[in-house]
Structure formats: structure tokens, C-alpha cells
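Researcher: Next entry: tRNA pseudouridine synthase B (Pedobacter boryungensis).
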Amino acid sequence: MENKNLQFPDFDFAQGELLLINKPYKWTSFDVVGKIRNSLKPLKLKVGHAGTLDPLATGLLIICTGKLTKQIDTFQAEEKEYTGTMILGASTPSFDMETEVDANFPINHLTEEEIYAATEPFKGDIEQYPPAHSAVKVNGERLYVKARLGEEVELRKRHVTVNEFEITRIALPEVDFRIVCSKGTYIRSLVSDFGKQLNNAAYLSKLTRTRSGNFLLKNAFEVADLVQYLRNKREEKRETEST
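Model: Predicted structure:
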């Protein structure tokens, strides 16, 4: 059901709209784009997103329509903020919960001081490898396709910037964090490398994008609410045209 308390603006999708969406858990970014595109039919519009979120991540996804799709690269280049949870003492091939734990390590000896200090090497300009289970393309093919087939993948380092890396809660094996970083930063890789910095292991169990540039998650629409609103407007238009 559409939330009747929500206030939607008078959209002009053909001219171009920037929509802030809270991507649901286990949805791909393309799932969100497709859902919104379908709800805009019979209008034939370009619809795209400005920055992929992994299926197991939630949070702010910027959707552009119409003429605003030409500015997607600009929006995508903006600084991002994330909050999340990592699990210390274990690793997975995908660096998150997409794959099963493949190794366990003792963590009783780890102190809070060591965990806080381990963030320091990751602040500033750093190099990281993307996860093998990622949407990065190599020779025109997504890495996760090769990884799921068990094929060897060639990973190339990328330069990224981490402006803030803050530990916000420690309840081992869980550790909560907040990260502010540049476009293209893989939080899963950062978490995996963080575990190695502690001579241990870690994988990502929860991730939410809370900000992209000046756009905030708290101002985002839920997909279901927006789609229901658009469908209702389409029905109202049909009824008006048939009378």
C-alpha cells in the first residue's frame, strides 16, 4: 500500500528527474531501474542509476530519468558515505555473505585498541583490489560471472580515497563502522583488508549507503511507495481521458 502521508512532487520525467531511492535488500540496482521504468509506461524514457549498489547492500541509489541521464557520470563521481557491520575472525570468497565462510580464525586476543588502530592505514589515498565477485568488467565480462563459474580472474589494483574510517561499535565478532570514500571504493575489499591488517580475517555482513554527494538516504523514497504512486497517477490519467 502507498503511504498516504508521503508528499510526492509534480514529476516531469521526460524533462528529467533525479529520484532518491532506498534500494531494498537483495535487489540489484538494475532491478530498481527496471521497476521504475516499467511503472512509467507507456512513456518511453531513458532511466539509469548513478552508482551501483551490491544486491546485499541497501541504501541510497540515485535514479535519473529523461534528459538528466546525461548527468549520471557527474552524480556518480561524488563522494559516498556508508555504514555497516563486519564479522571478524572469518573470511568468505566474496568478502560478504553471498558465499559461505571458508576459513575461521581466533579473535579472543584482539583488543579494542588494536581494532581502532587498524583503521589508520586505510585513511587517505590507497590501492585496493576489487572482489572477484564484483561487477567490474575484464575483457567485457563481469568478474562475478567468472567467479561463480570457478574460473580464474585477473584482478587489477585501483586507486581510491578513504576520507573517514570510523569504528562505531565493537561487539565481537561484530564491528560496526562508518566510511566516507571516493567513487569506486569497494567496501567489501576494505573490510577484507582490514581483517588482514589485524593478522586475522573479516567479511562484510551489512552495508548501507547513507549519502552520495549532497544527497541523503533520509530523503529517499521507498521503491514500493514510489511505484504505487506512479501507478495511481497513471490510472487517474486513464480515467480522466476516458470520461
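Model: Note for the record: The longest strand covers residues 158-171.
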